[in-house]
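Model the whole thing, not chain by chain.
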Amino acid sequence: MDLILIRHARAQPCSEDLPDSMRPLTERGRRQFARVARGLDRLEIRVDLLLHSPWLRAVDTAELLGRILDGPSRVTSLLAEAPTVHLLDDLVRLQTQRVAVVGHEPWLGELCAWLVAGDAGSCANFALNKGGVAWLTGIPLPGGMRLQGWFPPRVLRYV
Amino acid sequence: MAARRLDAWLVLGNRRMLRDDLRWLRATVSRARDLDVLIGGEVPGWLLSQDLLVWLQLRRAEEQPKIVAALESERSGALLDALSLLPDIDQDTARRSISPIVRQVLDRAAQLRANDDPDDDDLHGLRRAVRRLRFALEWMGEKSSALAELQQIFGEFNNRVLLLRWLDAFPEQSVTEEPRARLGAELCEQRATVVRTWQGVQDRVQEVCLEWT
């Protein structure tokens, strides 16, 4: 499986009136991430399924990935929490070979560390910037995937 | 129905995400919804023999665990969370996004006009397009009696088509032979009524469409 991990784009900061889950993307974040999506498209990265967290900034980021999506999308609350075996079970059971997930830090870093190194504890080494992308290949089990590519958003914007 | 209204709202908001999740939810409950319509008394008595009714109720009971599992699933919960977090749609976005919905109605209408003898697929295509336009306009605070009238007559026709499918699936075909023949004849008449109704309101629908393009 090719698994593309994508951290949401830059979002408005939290405030008393704006709970964390309701933070929308900023205009700049939206603009910049549209270029990230274009960069992925230029690299001919395509996915058959897009999983995303229900939080607004992840939904908004997923919306901008339409150009690389060849199949359906699915919302899952498993991406709005630390990665669990349920998430890995879901990934293993998928029939699709090219999957993107849009989520949040530190959980994406934990997921990446878990899949690549077999240990979520080294997540600090795999922390994604906002709008950053990691490309893994292999079987989505602890230690079952290889890091194929690591794309800071700035790089993708200039592809 | 609520899922379809929400889908129209997402289209108005120019959103693609969550529409597949709504589609999944609709697909999960659609058989039960159809059976509820049939069992719920919208079907004339001569069509529903006691045997058939019991059989339909059994089929409905089979659907119940699937519905409960879907509604209690992580995906349903995440969908509700995500929908509750979406912001309102501004009028400019809605006005821009309604164009493809209107275009679909106009295309389907043209298709129907070009066909002297429209088949059920032509009618269902228009039915779906009209329904989406009606829901989209309702989100924008607009009501169209022409669309409502059309949807009502299309809905009744569709329910009869569904009933015929269930009659065809009933294991004891000898029991349903007569009702099937009668329903088949009724469907022909109803198809003609749908086409007549459409011809009667198509100018009004066209006006509504032009107003939003």
